[in-house]
What does this fold into?
Amino acid sequence: MSEGDSNTTQRPDGRAVDQLRTVNFKNNIAPYATGSTLIEWGDTRVICSATVEESVPRWMKMQNVEGGWLTAEYSMLPYSTLDRKRRDISKGKIDGRSQEIQRLIGRSMRAAVDMVKLGSRTIWIDCDVLQADGGTRTASITGGYVALSLAFVKLQSEGLLECDPIISPVAAVSVGVVGGVPVLDLPYVEDVAAEVDMNLVMNANGEFIELQGTGEKNSFTEAELSTMLSHGRKGVTELLEFQKAAIAEG
It folds into this structure.
């Protein structure tokens, strides 16, 4: 993609093709959690919390697996979308989308942590969507990492952790092809119109943890994929800096 494309492509909110929406963190939003933050990403808002249990799942004990465990739960609150979303409990089971997303969050967080250094404890990452305008899973991962890091800071200050178990910071962002143009960080209005939709989870070493990409309406070329990955790398690099600043604020 030429530099001119960034200047001439008109997005609904006026952003350049490789520009993130505004991202803010409000820490300690859930005082009973070990670590928490509210991530505001454009008009998407997600409360992310990390809660510690001083035990591990039974399967780890039975298999004599050393270290700890980290898992996640994700939900969209009924008022997070234009049309009220029914709670999973009212349906008697978690819906497939929520299950897939919380597994993604769990995998992403585990990739950031040395489980042996974590010790014999479980970390629960809870992500509750207050308002959805695209990118709730990437916001949950990006905010979840901040909540997790704040929890580790607290555990170290209390003498419950000898050292920081973080291997490498992790963040996530969406990319896609809209109107034939690869773009970064899709809000809902672009997401529903996208020919290609992809989510990138990366660490601070520039390595990929997960790629989820689908040709929703069209197939996509290697050149389009290359541009999307370039946009995604740029976005993740910026998000990692935002996370670092949020964690430093405590």
